[in-house]
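call fold(seq) -> tokens
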Amino acid sequence: MRKIIILNWVLKIFIGLLILAIPINECLRYNMSSEEITIIYKESIFGNLCPYIMLLRIVVLILTIHNIQKGLQAFIKEGVFNFKSSERFKRSGYLLLLLSVSGIIIRLLGMSQTPKDQILSDIIMYLLLLAIGIGLLAFSDVIKKGNIIETENNLTI
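ret:
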């Protein structure tokens, strides 16, 4: 249980850092001239919308990590087999699937603009996120079935 508590705090700190990164990124972009912004995003497939898409993906990542953290918090408060954790991990799994599939699509659409070795490493990273998302969905099912077994066991006693 101690490791879960430590992981819970690490995720809280990571969420805080990601939330701090958003205004810092916006301040840095705000201080750039429109010509600099145009030059930076000229080659991008989304053009000037690129920072907003990145912001949306960061928000999805924050929501994913927040749900994992809340699932761990439910572990600490209510024990391992509980419905809240199952639902939080399921939601996190779906958000990670969304994040990884969107990342793969964006990377494949922009293939002509980036080096091939970077494309390969990015796709491997997104496939790893996809595997983690599927793992969270499976873990959610295990917790849900464990909750059902635990409930039946308590009723039998």
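The chain has five helices and no strands.
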